[in-house]
Design goal:
Structural class: mainly beta
Helix content: under 10%
Distance between the termini: 37 Å
Number of helices: 2
Low-confidence stretches: none
Order of helices and strands: EEEEEHEEEEEEEH
Mean pLDDT: 94
Strand order of the largest sheet: 5-6-12-7-10
Length: about 150
């Protein structure tokens, strides 16, 4: 089974690699008794993340989610990185393809499937719903430092 590779760590960062997207099918994710998802890896623990979970998944042609799921408190943002498929939330089904972004509220019942003839690569970021306030905009939270950009 494939594992994430640590690229570097420091006091304020952790960097990992899942490798090339065409190698994602080497990952296996046990999800409970009798349920293992091939081609999916969660990255939060390896990244030492404190505010979100992220997964990468490659779905082969014809592959669908092994189960419908919802969440108690977490919203999810799905990004189709490569390929095409169908996404189902509650009773609505719609086409997705490279560049599609889908936000699903915690209670949304969700599943997806690859309808194309190549692997569909999906990135999913899971985070606490309703955790951002009015001032939590990129401009409101970011701090521009008086420091020259240098990679030396």
């Amino acid at each position: 089974m494939k594992e994430l590779k640590v690229l570097g760590e420091g006091a304020n960062f952790t960097a990992v690699s899942a490798g090339q997207f065409d190698g994602l099918n080497g990952f296996e994710l046990p999800m409970g008794p009798g349920v293992t998802v091939t081609g999916k890896v969660f990255t939060g623990a390896a990244l030492k993340s404190t505010g979100m979970e992220m997964s990468l998944q490659a779905m082969v042609p014809g592959q669908a989610s092994p189960f419908v799921h919802a969440h108690k408190k977490h919203e999810e943002l799905y990004m189709i990185v490569k390929g095409e498929g169908e996404f189902k939330v509650d009773d609505k089904v719609f086409a997705v393809s490279e560049g599609s972004l889908v936000r699903v509220a915690p209670a949304g019942k969700r599943a997806l499937r690859n309808t194309g003839d190549t692997d569909m690569v999906v990135m999913c970021i899971q985070y606490m719903a309703d955790s951002f306030g009015e001032n939590d905009t990129p401009a409101g939270d970011g701090v521009i430092l008086d420091e020259k950009v240098s990679f030396e």
